[in-house]
Design goal:
316 residues; 2 domains; alpha/beta; 42% helix; single chain; 8 strands; 8-stranded mixed beta sheet; Rossmann fold; globular
């Protein structure tokens, strides 16, 4: 009996010790917002109040252009994912991009509701606040799902549509980033809000790039540090817990706007067959498949993907 008690005590001691070690090695506090702003909100960054949030955005290029290109990032990302594109696009176009609620410097939705409908409403209010009545709208992954959903709801506000490895159709990933897996595990997901190893960001990025050599320390640091903005880790979990609507994709066939479907053929998160599904359903689209590129073409192959966008925009 004494041996059993000693064994139990030893077990609890080991668990407690291991927990302390994990917290010391991998526990990260939220990074103060002002520190993140100093690093990631330099000019031309601005902030605007929308739906009770102080939204981080950038508005570049010809500000007199009444039809800007609005670019929307994906899950776990930020407006910085379009940095290289913007350098090229702003020479001829006005480019607007923002950190979606739950990501980057904007912070979480006050009501913690991360449905596509809520994002579409947010985007409408954001564009109205900027005085944008019509735009070209483009998005990657989650941002692509928001882009076509917005187009379906507010067709009068969209001139053209750009879908970059976009979400929308029921799909089974060939490989899921480790951060997505952790955020869905009971109990463990709660620990994730304060124990967030940097290697999770590294592994998740390598999962969405075909060429792993392009996952640099600077890129990992940006994704990792912006995850540590207050509220973002909980938002990441809340977003993945939302119940998905499995029938809204049927409205894709009703979209009339000229659309560019841009896809990396090595995407393991949203496989390339979904690009062809968009191509088959959209009545007025151009399909551009990028060889040996993964889920984020604008970061992995920025020059070639931006060139495809510019060609699409300039062709009437």
């Amino acid at each position: 009996m004494k041996l059993i008690i000693k064994t139990i005590k030893l077990l609890f001691f080991c668990i407690g010790f291991l927990t302390i070690v994990i917290i010391v090695l991998y526990g990260y506090r939220d990074i103060p917002l002002e520190d993140l702003k100093a690093k990631y909100a330099r000019a031309p960054s601005s902030f605007i109040s929308v739906d009770g949030m102080n939204v981080h955005f950038r508005d570049e290029g010809d500000r007199k252009n009444s039809i800007p290109i609005v670019l929307i990032h994906g899950t776990g990302s930020s407006l910085h994912t379009f940095n290289d594109w913007t350098i090229q696009l702003k020479q001829d176009f006005r480019v607007v991009r923002m950190d979606l609620p739950g990501y980057g410097l904007t912070g979480p939705f006050p009501d913690r509701s991360y449905s596509i409908d809520n994002y579409v409403d947010f985007l409408k209010h954001f564009l109205t606040s900027l005085g944008v009545k019509k735009c070209v709208i483009g998005g990657n992954s989650l941002g692509g799902g928001i882009a076509w959903s917005f187009t379906s709801k507010y067709p009068e506000m969209v001139d053209k549509l750009i879908l970059i490895n976009a979400s929308g159709y029921p799909s089974k990933a060939k490989s899921v980033p480790v951060a997505f897996k952790i955020a869905k595990i009971p109990v463990v997901k709660n620990i994730f809000t304060f124990i967030t190893p940097r290697f999770v960001a590294k592994s998740s990025l390598e999962n969405v790039f075909a060429d792993k050599t392009k996952v640099t320390d600077k890129l990992i640091d940006r994704y990792f540090e912006l995850t540590l903005r207050e509220g973002n880790r909980q938002a990441f979990i809340d977003k993945l817990e939302r119940k998905k609507n499995t029938i809204t994709y049927k409205s894709i066939k009703l979209i009339k706007q000229r659309t560019l479907v841009l896809w990396g053929d090595q995407d393991k998160l949203i496989p390339v067959d979904k690009a062809y599904q968009f191509h088959n359903d959209l009545p007025n689209d151009t399909l551009f498949i990028m060889k040996d590129v993964g889920h984020v073409p604008m970061e992995e192959s920025p020059s070639l993907s931006a060139e495809a966008v510019i060609t699409f925009l300039k062709n009437k």
